[in-house]
Automatic annotation (TrEMBL):
Residues in HTH cro/C1-type domain copies: 48-97
Name the record gives this protein: Helix-turn-helix transcriptional regulator
Biological source species: Streptomyces spectabilis
Taxonomic classification: Bacteria, Bacillati, Actinomycetota, Actinomycetes, Kitasatosporales
Alphabetical list of InterPro entries matching this protein: Cro/C1-type_HTH (IPR001387), MLTR_LBD (IPR041413)
Length: 277
């Protein structure tokens, strides 16, 4: 555990959290033998105190559970405890992952709020729509969240799930015709990304598991999936051949990838298609 960073993240988050957001505090304070109301004779802080977070967690104030955690004296907190604290402090997804990295050295296995996996800030929509080149954003299961007209023309039409398109899984059974050199340039990349995503998530991801089950039912996909794949393969900087959906010409597809804030395990992909001739 990086105790200093961990404590700093919690302290700053606590000092941003308004105690007025928790109307149950006066009763909790009173039951704990503290002054019910803040003001004369009580804490004048507008933000939550360490004791109050312990009370909100359901702990006896005298145990000082949260205070010890914030000071780095509890070096192996449970996932459940961290989630409850992060929820009280209203951490954003990137802050939740920062806290997890400080505690355990790796990103959280799942988002703080599962619905946020599909949350997309409005600014990303106009950013994608304003791109001259094809661009799209997908979530952690490769479901497309937004895309521009150039991407729609390139794929003709834009698939709902890019992983299924790359692997020609239903309802994209005919997509492989758009990927010259699939066995060298597309298949290994897609299957490596799928394997890496499933390995990274400690919890079961049913949508990805369903794709994996379908992969294992296809002999060619199964053989490639069970071979030694490169977990470091990702779309950033990739160059592959692709048939343009509207022009019906083979061209070179260059791609740049990034991670949009607010979409857990999401990807923003910018593409440039150049005809071979």
């Amino acid at each position: 555990m990086d105790s200093e960073r961990f404590g700093l993240i919690l302290t700053r988050a606590r000092q941003r959290t308004d105690a007025a957001d928790y109307p149950e505090l006066p009763e909790l304070r009173q039951k704990a033998g503290l002054a019910a109301e803040r003001g004369p004779g009580g804490r004048r802080l507008s933000y939550l105190s360490q004791v109050e977070i312990s009370l909100l967690l359901g702990y006896d104030a005298s145990r000082g559970i949260y205070a010890r955690l914030e000071r780095g004296l509890i070096t192996n907190p449970s996932d459940d405890l961290l989630r409850r604290i992060a929820t009280i402090l209203n951490l954003q997804e990137h802050q939740w992952h920062d806290l997890y990295v400080a505690a355990f050295g790796h990103r959280a296995p799942s988002p703080l709020r599962p619905a946020s996996m599909h949350a997309l800030h409005d600014s990303w929509n106009w950013a994608i729509q304003g791109q001259e080149h094809p661009a799209y954003i997908s979530d952690g299961a490769w479901n497309v969240l937004t895309y521009n007209e150039a991407a729609n023309a390139l794929f003709n039409p834009m698939p709902k799930n890019v992983m299924r398109w790359m692997l020609s899984l239903p309802p994209q059974e005919d997509s492989r015709a758009a990927m010259p050199g699939w066995a060298e340039g597309w298949g290994p990349v897609a299957l490596s990304q799928l394997a890496s995503a499933l390995h990274e998530r400690n919890e079961a991801h049913e949508e990805l598991r369903q794709i994996e089950r379908e992969v294992l039912q296809h002999p060619d996909l199964k053989a490639m999936y069970e071979s030694v794949l490169d977990a470091r393969i990702h779309p950033d900087g990739s160059r592959r051949l692709m048939v343009h959906g509207i022009r019906r010409e083979i061209g070179v597809l260059d791609a740049a990838a990034g991670t949009p804030v607010g979409v857990d395990h999401g990807r923003v992909i910018f593409m440039k298609w150049t005809p071979l001739t």
